[in-house]
Amino acid sequence: MPTNFTVVPVKDNTKKAKKGNEEDDVDDNNVLKEEEEDATGDGVPKENSPFINNTDNDKGNSYDGTNMALFEEEMDSNPMVSSLLNKLANYTNLTQGAQEHEEADDDEGPKKKAVKSPQMGTFMGVYLPCLQNILGVILFLRLTWIVGTAGILESLAIVCLCCSCTMLTAISMSAIATNGVVPAGGSYYMISRSLGPEFGGAVGLCFYLGTTFAGSMYILGTIEILLTYIVPKAAIFVAERKEDEVDALLNNMRVYGTCCLALMSVVVFVGVKYVNKLALVFLACVILSIFAIYAGVIKTIFEPPDFPVCMLGNRTLRNHNFDSCLKTVVIDNVTVTTKLWKLFCDGPELNATCNDYFVQNNVTEVQGIPGLASGVISGDSAQDIYMPYVVNDITTFFTLLVGIYFPSVTGIMAGSNRSGDLRDAQKSIPIGTILAIATTSFIYVTCVILFGGCIEGVLLRDKFGDAVKGNLVIGTLSWPSPWVIVIGSFFSCCGAGLQSLTGAPRLLQAIARDGIVPFLQVRYTHVKAVFIIICLVFGHGKANGEPTWALLLTAGICEIGILIASLDAVAPILSMFFLMCYLFVNLACAVQTLLRTPNWRPRFKYYHWALSFLGMSLCLALMFICSWYYAIVAMAIATCIYKYIEYRGAEKEWGDGIRGLSLNAARYALIRLEEAPPHTKNWRPQLLVLLNVDSDQGVKHPRLLSLTTQLKAGKGLTIAGNVLEGTYLTRDAEAKKAEQSAMSAERTKGFCHVVVSSNLRDGVSHLIQSAGLGGMKHNTVLMAWPGNWRQSNDQQSWKNFIETVRETTATHHALLVAKNVDSFPTNQERLVEGTIDVWWVVHDGGMLMLLPFLLRQHKVWRKCKMRIFTVAQMDDNSIQMKKDLQVFLYHLRLDAEVEVVEMHDNDISAFTYEKTLVMEQRSQMLKQMQLSRTEREREIQSITDESRSSIRRKNQGAAQRLSLVIKVFFSAFLSHCDILVKTRNQSNVRRMHTAVKMNEVVVNKSQGAHLVLLNMPGPPRNRGGDENYMEFLEVLLEGLNRVLLVRGGGREVITIYS
C-alpha cells in the first residue's frame, strides 16, 4: 500500500546554522571536557542520539510556527516528528577506537575532517577481520604437533568441541548485536548492557586480560619463528648440554620477547594508523599461507616432497649434527663410522662402547611426507631425553591439548568490535561472523585430516622440526617453498600482536569511561601532565586522546606472559578469560530470551535460549577441561571484580537483563509469598522507620537508620518513611530529594517511601496503612521519642505521637520508640563491654527477648551481655520465677543473666502526689487559659470592629474581657483546689506511682547499661488523658540515657520449638 507524504516548507535560518556549526567545530577540540560535562546516564559520552529524551541539543531551537501552536508548550520534551526523523537519518555512531585517534593524528588544521558515514560491508568489515583474528599462531606452530600427539580422531574431537563453542557463542552474539546499535566497546558493551555494570565490568576486565595475554602469545610465537626457523644463530643463550636446551630457549624468548614488546608498544603509541594500514598486509600473509598449505597437499598426491626422517628403531633422530642416516659407510672397501656413530658411541672406532638401544636397533630412513595416498599410521613410545632423539618438551594429555588449541578459535568478536564502521551492522555481524567461523572450522577440520594423511606421525610429533634440519613442519608440506609459511606465519603473528596491543588499551579505556570501576578513573589533570612528558620522550607531540596509561598497563601485563616464555603455558591462561567472556555472552542471550523483555527484538531470528544455554554449559565445561586450577583463578578474579564494582562503583542503570531477572524473581516471590502473617520461626522485624527531615530535606535523626541496620543484622525489610506537608504538585522535587537523602544517610539498604499530605497526621496514617507490597509489608514501626514535647508550643506534635501509637496497635504492628536516639552508636562504633538490659514487665509476644538477640548479631553490640529483669509482686515466689525464667531462656537458646526484682505495695508517697498535682494543674490550665486559633481570630476581629465604632465602647469591652479573665482564673484556681481533695481517688495517682517506682528500680539497676529495653504502656482509651500519658512516660524514662520502648503487635514472635 503506497504511503503519501506531504512536505511542508519551513524557513531556513542559514546564518544561525552556520554559526552553530562553527561552535560545534570549536567544541570538538576539547574532547575530554565534553566527556566530563556531557555524560549520559550510562557513563558513555553523549552521542547525537535520535531518541526523544535527548533534548539538550534542541533547547536553543525555538518554535515560531502557528500550525502546531496547540503543542508548542511540549516542544522542549516532545520534539516534532520531522525533527526526530531528521536526527535518525543523520545519526552516525563511529567506534571510539583507533579511527578517532587516526583522525586526530591527521588533523593539522584548526578544524577536524568531516566524519564520513560508515561504508564497510560484510566481507571487508566482518568476515576478513574475523578470519584474520581466528587464524594465527596455533595453526602454524602447534596444529601439526597436536595431530601427531593426539591422533586424527582426538584432534577432530578437540576441533569440533572448540568450534562448536564459538559457533554457539556467535549465534548468541548475533542476537545481542542485532538488538539495537552496538557502539564502541564490542563484547564489553554487549555484556554490560545485557547483564548490568557488575557483570559487564568483571567480564570486560577479564576480556581485557585475555586480549593482553593473547598479545603475549602472539609475540612469543613471533620470537619462536624468528629464533627457530629464520635466524637460529641469533640466540643469545646457547645450551652446552641437550637437557639445557629448553631453558636456553625460554631465556632467549624472554629477552627477545621483551624487546619485541617494547618495539610494538612504541609503534602502537606513535601511530595507530600504520597498524590499521598494515592489517590487510598481515591478512594477505595468512590467506597466502593457507593456500600454500592446500597447494602443497595437492602436490603430495603426485609428487611428495623429499624430507627424509632418520629413525633409530622406532625413535626419531634430530637431524642437526650428522649428514647421513647410517651407522657406518664403506669407503674403498673399508668400513668407516659416520657422524651419527660418534653421537651414540665413545669414539669413532668400531669396537667403541655404544648406547645399548643404538646397538640393538637399526637405523632407517623414512619419508616425512609420504603423501596423501600413503595411508600413514602414527605410533608413540617412551624415549631417553639424554640421547639425540626428538622428544616432547612437555607431558601431554587430552585436556592440555584442548587448552593449547582453543586460542586458535578465538577472535570471533572482531566484527562486533567494528560495528560503528559497518554500513548495516545488524545484517553484517551475524552473516560475517558465522561465515568466518564456518570457514575457519572447515580449514581446521581439513587440516587435521590432511596433516594426518600426508605427514608421517613421527614428524607430526616433532614440534620444532628437529628431524627435518630445523624446518617448520607445516612448512615442509607447503608449496612452492617452506619459506612461504615461515614468512607468512611470522608476519601473521606480528600483526596479531600489534592488533592485541591496539585493541586491549581501548577496551580498558571504554570500561574506564563508563565510570563503573573507581580505581580506573584517574583525574584528567594528572593524565594530561604525564601524557605530555611521555609525548616529549617519544617525540610524539600531539595530544590525540591516545589511551597512554592503558597502553602502559597493557604492556606491563603482557610482559608477565612474556616472562612465562612458553607458548604452551600462556595459551591456557588466555583460554580461560576468553571462555569466561563467551560464557557470559551466552548467558546474556539466554536471560534476555527467557525474560521476553519488550526491548528484546533482535533482527537475527535463528537463536534459541536452549542453544545459548548449551553454549554457556560448553564454555564452562571447556574451562575446567583446559585447566581446573586456571578456571578457579579466573572465576575468583571475576568474582572479586564483581563484588568490588557492586560495593564501590555500580551506579548505572542500563536496563540490563539481570535487573529484569530480579524483577521477575521478585514478582514470582511476591506472588508465592502469602499475605498472611509468617510463621513464628520466620518472624523478624520488617521495619517502617518514621523519619523527620529539616528544611533542606536532610534526615534529622540519622542514628535511627543506624539502629535499623543493627536490628536487622543485614536481613529483613526496611522502609524509610517520611511525610511532607502540602500538595504533590508543589513539592514533588522536595519529595524526590527527601527519598535520596533518606537512603544515603548511614548507607541503609532498603526502600524509601515519601508521602506528600495535607497534614502530618494523615500522612503518617497513610504510610502505616499502605507501605510495602503484598506479603512484603512491614510488621514493626520504629520512631524517635519527641524529646521537646513539653517546650513546644504546638500540641500537635505529641498528639500525633499518641495517635501513631494507637494506630500501630489497631493495625497489629509492633512499635519501637527510641529515646535519645542521637546518642545511639553508629554502625562504625564498637561497644567493648557493657550490658543490654531487658525489663520484662508484661508479656508482649517475646519481642523483648528477640530484639537483644538480633542486636547482638551486629558487630556494634556483639560484645555486650544480655540481662533480663522481671518484676515480682508480693504474692509471687521470686525464687521460683527466676528458675522458671532460666529454663524458659534455655529452651529459647538465649544466653542471658536473670534477675527478679520485687516491688512492694508501699504507700503512695507525697512526691507522687506532687507530681500528679503538677501534671494535672498544667493540663487543666492549658485547657482553660489557652485560646484556640479560631477564638484568637474572632477576638482580633471583634476588637477591630469595635475600634471603628467608638473608643468608648472599646474601653468598656476591654473592661468586660478583663473581668471575664479574672473569673476564669479564679474558677480554675477553685477547681484545682478541689482536685487536691479528690485526686486520692483518681487513677492518675496510681499510674504516677507505678511510673515513679518503676523508674527508681530501673535507674538503680540499669543506669550504666548501654541500652535499656522496656515495655511500653498503651495510651488511655479516653483521649482526654493523652497529655497525662506523655507525662507518665516521661517520668518512667527519667534519668536513663538510651532507652528502647517496645510494644508488641499482639502475636508470638519467638518460640522454643525447632
From TrEMBL:
<feature type="transmembrane region" description="Helical">
    <location>
        <begin position="121"/>
        <end position="143"/>
    </location>
</feature>
<feature type="transmembrane region" description="Helical">
    <location>
        <begin position="199"/>
        <end position="220"/>
    </location>
</feature>
<feature type="transmembrane region" description="Helical">
    <location>
        <begin position="279"/>
        <end position="302"/>
    </location>
</feature>
<feature type="transmembrane region" description="Helical">
    <location>
        <begin position="573"/>
        <end position="595"/>
    </location>
</feature>
<keyword id="KW-0769">Symport</keyword>
<keyword id="KW-0633">Potassium transport</keyword>
<dbReference type="GO" id="GO:0045202">
    <property type="term" value="C:synapse"/>
</dbReference>
<feature type="compositionally biased region" description="Acidic residues">
    <location>
        <begin position="22"/>
        <end position="40"/>
    </location>
</feature>
<dbReference type="Pfam" id="PF03522">
    <property type="entry name" value="SLC12"/>
</dbReference>
<comment type="similarity">
    <text>Belongs to the SLC12A transporter family. K/Cl co-transporter subfamily.</text>
</comment>
<feature type="domain" description="Amino acid permease/ SLC12A">
    <location>
        <begin position="126"/>
        <end position="302"/>
    </location>
</feature>
<dbReference type="InterPro" id="IPR018491">
    <property type="entry name" value="SLC12_C"/>
</dbReference>
<dbReference type="InterPro" id="IPR004842">
    <property type="entry name" value="SLC12A_fam"/>
</dbReference>
<keyword id="KW-0868">Chloride</keyword>
<keyword id="KW-1003">Cell membrane</keyword>
<dbReference type="GO" id="GO:0007268">
    <property type="term" value="P:chemical synaptic transmission"/>
</dbReference>
<keyword id="KW-0597">Phosphoprotein</keyword>
<dbReference type="GO" id="GO:0006884">
    <property type="term" value="P:cell volume homeostasis"/>
</dbReference>
<keyword id="KW-1133">Transmembrane helix</keyword>
<feature type="transmembrane region" description="Helical">
    <location>
        <begin position="394"/>
        <end position="414"/>
    </location>
</feature>
<feature type="region of interest" description="Disordered">
    <location>
        <begin position="1"/>
        <end position="62"/>
    </location>
</feature>
<dbReference type="GO" id="GO:0005886">
    <property type="term" value="C:plasma membrane"/>
</dbReference>
<feature type="domain" description="SLC12A transporter C-terminal">
    <location>
        <begin position="702"/>
        <end position="817"/>
    </location>
</feature>
<dbReference type="Pfam" id="PF00324">
    <property type="entry name" value="AA_permease"/>
</dbReference>
<dbReference type="InterPro" id="IPR004841">
    <property type="entry name" value="AA-permease/SLC12A_dom"/>
</dbReference>
<keyword id="KW-0325">Glycoprotein</keyword>
<dbReference type="GO" id="GO:0055064">
    <property type="term" value="P:chloride ion homeostasis"/>
</dbReference>
<keyword id="KW-0813">Transport</keyword>
<feature type="compositionally biased region" description="Basic and acidic residues">
    <location>
        <begin position="12"/>
        <end position="21"/>
    </location>
</feature>
<feature type="transmembrane region" description="Helical">
    <location>
        <begin position="155"/>
        <end position="178"/>
    </location>
</feature>
<dbReference type="GO" id="GO:1990573">
    <property type="term" value="P:potassium ion import across plasma membrane"/>
</dbReference>
<keyword id="KW-0630">Potassium</keyword>
<keyword id="KW-0406">Ion transport</keyword>
<feature type="transmembrane region" description="Helical">
    <location>
        <begin position="434"/>
        <end position="460"/>
    </location>
</feature>
<feature type="domain" description="SLC12A transporter C-terminal">
    <location>
        <begin position="828"/>
        <end position="1058"/>
    </location>
</feature>
<feature type="transmembrane region" description="Helical">
    <location>
        <begin position="253"/>
        <end position="272"/>
    </location>
</feature>
<keyword id="KW-0812">Transmembrane</keyword>
<dbReference type="GO" id="GO:0055075">
    <property type="term" value="P:potassium ion homeostasis"/>
</dbReference>
<feature type="transmembrane region" description="Helical">
    <location>
        <begin position="480"/>
        <end position="498"/>
    </location>
</feature>
<feature type="domain" description="Amino acid permease/ SLC12A">
    <location>
        <begin position="390"/>
        <end position="688"/>
    </location>
</feature>
<dbReference type="GO" id="GO:0015379">
    <property type="term" value="F:potassium:chloride symporter activity"/>
</dbReference>
<feature type="transmembrane region" description="Helical">
    <location>
        <begin position="607"/>
        <end position="631"/>
    </location>
</feature>
